[in-house]
Design brief:
The complex is a heterodimer. Chain A is α/β, with parallel strands linked by helices. Chain A has 11 helices and 26 strands. A 5-stranded parallel β-sheet of chain A has the order 3-2-1-7-19. The N and C termini of chain B lie close together (11 Å). The chains are: A alpha/beta, B alpha+beta.
Chain lengths: 416, 146
């Protein structure tokens, strides 16, 4: 009987369990879960604080899942070291978990910069775990002034969910626009405007120089590089994430910023697989190796890792960066790489940008317009030659009617 | 498993299937009362090219990318049918971002909905198929997954 060990119990771990069980009903699965909870939908922590979900509904799987899958769960336990020769994982408490095949599904951790005066700030939070969200909920009230450092997806989601709960929110970022990893200045302005309409303020193109206290009121304040002084009660640090790659990199595993994996989710070390936010893999829209952290990739990688760990065969070679996110009802979608020729269509409330190069759709940005966007996404992932579709038609709206008759027959004529 | 298939040559582009779908899922008894003068939110839609038209609804994919991509764990596959738990959905539109067929769209309440083959409503078999005047939509078995 094969012994499977999974480090982590997030999205990729759950899909890994399902992948293993699709092939092997017998093997023993041990899950080392740093968090004390069954897997929950991490992106939903902001929805929890908006009361748009609750702790029960935001569970990733039903309550019987781990039992049904025959998993031994080690909750609240952390892996500290992998012994690749003896094939054992050492836990924080010194115990050892032997494995035949291991999957590292350890996700990422929030990057906390060294900032002068940060230690003296009492109410400071990250916003990546359920426990973070619950602690933040306790720390704020309707009079709170909240400062969020970081205008990326996580910082803005945090701002959105606190908007109705607190008195003031300011988001500060070194970048001169919001969502800098996904959007340029012009596209970002649509999103920023929507957030501002809901009372959120911004200090962009600026960064915290130090934290201190106002001498008269004793209140916290952040002094920015520009000289602006922002008083606050509660601080949220959402500057970025770092892959939890050290367990594998410490024992010689390949990788730059994450754990390098191939299309079967194998690391460079025998019998060790990895999946999700802790990995770096090939972006099929540009060919580069990078961190491709998003939930769909984590889920698909986890499943493929599980199938292969159990002796089946599966590949995941269509990873791209993609994201769909909404702020106060305004949906923004992005996918792929923004290179090549640009087709753009704009209105006061929407933007559509399609990037094409060498007969391929490389990437897109869709704000305030999202109908059937997956047709575009699949063209990027499948590297569909533009010459095989009516791309003029496709520019107007994503439609399978722009595909050839043969392609439509393959898509709609049988089982897919 | 039986799925919904379309015949491009026979589709008239009359959009009746969209109305039948919206009605079947309205939970109401009277079609006029349910749909007249209101925008409709069907789970099937007509795609139109220069010379062609055909109805598209969920393919109930063998390895559905929407199931893996849903950030709320709201989409699942049971007995071959890809279902959505609308109570869990948070309207992030990630499923729209990934479905290669354009088969998902939000309902009137903004929450995602998709074809569940009318197995969950009182119709019991796809209303789009039953109501198509030209048999351009069929419900049948065509090749099965292992
Ligand atoms: C607020 C927020 C909003 C988001 N919104 C979106 C979104 O809208 N769309 C999207 O695609 N993505 C979103 N994401 C990203 C998404 O949540 C991640 O890409 C996804 O959860 C990655 O899954 P994973 O399994 O790789 O890692 P995780 O789900 O992070 O799971 C990793 C687990 O491993 C555990 N772990 C780490 N080290 C150890 C160790 N040494 N021993 C034991 N356990 C360990 C951790 O505690 C954690 O529970 C969001 C993230 C956040 C925080
Ligand atoms: S919604 Fe789309 S991806 Fe999901 S099963 Fe249906 S056709 Fe496939
Ligand atoms: S819109 Fe709803 S069903 Fe679709 S991915 Fe988001 S939470 Fe899941």
């Amino acid at each position: 009987m094969r012994r499977y060990v999974i480090i982590g119990n997030g999205i990729s771990a759950v899909n890994c369990i399902e992948g293993i069980r699709s092939v092997d009903a017998e093997g023993r699965i041990t899950v080392i879960s740093g968090e004390k909870h069954p897997a929950y939908c991490r992106p939903l922590i902001s929805y929890l604080l908006e009361d748009r979900t609750d702790q029960k509904r935001m569970q990733y799987r039903d309550p019987g899942f781990y039992d049904r899958m025959g998993c031994e769960m080690l909750y609240g336990r952390k892996a500290v070291r992998i012994d690749k020769e003896d094939k054992k994982v050492e836990l924080y408490d010194g115990t050892l978990q032997p494995y035949d095949v291991l999957c590292v599904a350890a996700g990422s951790h929030p990057f906390v910069p060294r900032l002068n005066g940060l230690d003296a700030v009492e109410k400071k939070f990250s916003f990546t775990t359920l426990d973070d969200a619950l602690a933040l909920e306790q720390a704020v009230d309707k009079d709170s002034k909240v400062l969020i450092v970081g205008a990326g997806m996580i910082g803005l989601k945090c701002a959105e969910c606190l908007a109705e709960r607190v008195s003031e929110i300011t988001v500060c970022d070194l970048a001169d626009h919001v969502l800098p990893t996904f959007l340029d200045f012009e596209c970002a302005s649509y999103v920023q405007k929507r957030l501002e309409e809901h009372g959120i303020s911004f200090a962009l193109g600026d960064s915290v120089e130090h934290f201190g206290k106002d001498p008269s009121s004793g209140k916290n304040e952040a002094v920015l590089k520009s000289g602006t002084v922002l008083p606050f009660d509660v601080l949220v640090l959402a500057i970025g994430a770092r892959a939890n790659a050290s367990l594998v990199k410490d024992i010689g595993g390949a990788g730059e910023r994450g754990i390098a994996v191939d299309e079967c989710m194998r690391t460079s070390i025998q019998d060790i697989y990895a999946a999700g936010d802790c990995t770096e893999s090939t972006d099929v829209s540009c060919g580069d190796r990078k961190l491709l952290s998003n939930l769909p990739n984590a889920a698909m990688q986890g499943y493929v890792a599980g199938v292969n760990m159990a002796g089946g065969s599966a590949v995941f070679d269509k990873a791209i960066m993609m994201n769909s996110i909404s702020f106060f009802g305004l949906h923004s979608m992005t996918a792929g790489t923004y290179t090549g020729e640009l087709f753009e269509e704009k209105t006061d409330t929407s933007v559509k940008r399609l990037y094409t190069e060498n007969d391929l759709l490389k990437g897109f940005v869709l704000i305030g317009t999202s109908d059937r966007a997956g047709i575009y996404t699949s063209m990027i992932r499948n590297r569909t030659p533009l010459s095989s579709v009516d791309f003029e038609m496709m520019k107007k709206a994503a439609t399978t009617a722009a595909f050839s008759a043969g392609a439509r027959e393959r898509m709609f004529g049988g089982t897919v | 498993m039986k799925r919904v298939y379309v015949n491009e040559e026979w589709c008239l582009g009359c959009h009746l299937c969209e109305y039948n779908c919206a009605f079947a899922n309205s939970g109401m008894q009277d079609m006029a009362l349910a749909l007249k003068g209101k925008p409709i939110y069907p789970r099937i839609h007509i795609e139109e090219g220069e010379k062609i038209s055909y109805a598209v609804s969920c393919r109930h994919c063998e390895d559905p990318i929407c199931v893996r991509s849903c950030i709320a764990g709201a989409i699942s596959k049971e007995g071959g049918v890809v279902k959505i738990d609308r109570d869990k959905c948070v309207s992030c539109f990630t499923c729209i971002l990934v479905c290669p067929y354009g088969a998902l769209a939000p309902g009137e309440d903004g929450v995602m909905q998709k074809c569940e083959l009318c197995l969950q409503n009182s119709c019991g078999e796809p209303a789009c198929v039953k109501g198509c005047p030209n048999r351009a939509i069929v419900y049948e078995e065509r090749g099965e997954e292992a």
